Amino acid sequence: MNNFAEEISEQMVAEYLDIPLSTSRELMKEFDFDHFYPAVSRSPKIREIFELIKKVAKSNSSILITGETGTGKELIADLIHFTSLRHSKPYVKVNCAALPDNLLESELFGHEKGAFTGAYQRRIGKFEQANGGTIFLDEIGDMNPVTQAKILRVLQNREFSRVGGNDLIRVDVRVVAATNKNLEQAIEEGWFRSDLYYRLNVVNIKVPPLRERPEDILFIADFLRKKFSKEMRKATRGFTENTKKLLVNHFWPGNVRELRNLVERAVLLVDEGGLITCDHLSLSGKDYFLAGGKERRKKNEEDVQPETLNLKELERRHILKALEIARWVQKDAAKILGISNRSLNYKIKFHGITHPGWKKNK
Fold first, then answer.
1. Same domain, 188 and 260
2. What CATH number does the domain containing 111 carry?
């Protein structure tokens, strides 16, 4: 394919996902380019993922989608359901990180009247609502061990009890889960159940970060430019060459979500009929440097002298800087530093580095 979203037709989506044309038509009314750009993606990794989706979508197997924040895990879950044999049945989404532990269990399994203070009537949980269809458990790595045990029971026996109830409720639900956490490391640290992990991980779909598919960056960016230009009724002519270089070289810790936000802001700032420049992207200084801002790099190399030559202190500072850039996601910081996750974990403990966002520090 040569270009952009205009080239994605109902017939193409039907052939690409191996679904009837009528289903393709329904999907394209429901979703936009975000879900279907892999049909014209230049990235072999993305095309492999969608070949896998075609193979597993029509089964009832549990699926675990892993990847960094903002890579599009929810979009993949959407396609799995809507191209499955359950597509006409309920599709229920739950963000496990958005609810406190004491509310998540009630949200998932429901509760009986009087089960706790404020339970004035019976509540039907998400699993009952999804009966016959699919439930998408987003950020399952943030789920507490008690709720994990009940999820495991549903996967094993297809039954559960409401909070405060004794009756067993049977359901037929396909579970698709997603996380940006390293669940294998979480198992080693004792806060994620290994038996639940293996039940969920029948099929694993690992979504690569945007920086590992650079051939798609300008492709997606230009689609987003056209999308926001149309929504804002503002003509734009594209990106300058320096802006394109900046986009391709940026580390993208926020992945496609970050790209979307930057392009939307740029379209807001650019003059009518103008080209988007580096300034319109409004990257912070450190992000601009990482993305190859030449003037800032030159200044950094020539003018800034280190405050200390103490190796231990220098290492600590570099680790902190990498963690800040990676939004305190340790595996991403390890990639920036060029070391293994295990090595970084050791160094973090050695230097006594903590962060309130890390689970073990809560």
1. no
2. 3.40.50.300
What are 62-84's pLDDT values in tens digits?
999 999 988 989 989 998 998 89
pLDDT digits (tens, 9 = 90+) for 203-239: 999 999 999 999 989 988 988 898 899 889 999 999 9
CATH code, 316 = 1.10.10.60
In a domain, 188, yes or no: yes
Is the distance from CB of 162 to CB of 171 less than 8 angstroms? no
Cα separation values, 87 from 18, 58, 81, 174, 349, Å:
14, 10, 6, 11, 47
SS (H, E, C) the chain: CCCCHHHCCHHHHHHHHCCCHHHHHHHHHHCCHHHHHHHHCCCHHHHHHHHHHHHHCCCCCCEEEECCCCCCHHHHHHHHHHCCCCCCCCEEEEECCCCCHHHHHHHHHCECCCCCCCCCCCECCHHHHCCCCEEEEECHHHCCHHHHHHHHHHHHHCEECCECCCCCEECCCEEEEEECCCHHHHHHCCCCCHHHHHHHCCEEEECCCHHHCHHHHHHHHHHHHHHHHHHHCCCEEEECHHHHHHHHHCCCCCHHHHHHHHHHHHHHHCCCCEEECHHHHCCCHHHHHHCCCHHHHHHHHHHCCCCCCCHHHHHHHHHHHHHHHCCCCHHHHHHHHCCCHHHHHHHHHHHCCCCCCCHHHC
Whether the model clears a pTM of 0.85, i.e. scores above it, the answer is no
Domain that includes residue 354, residue range: 311-361
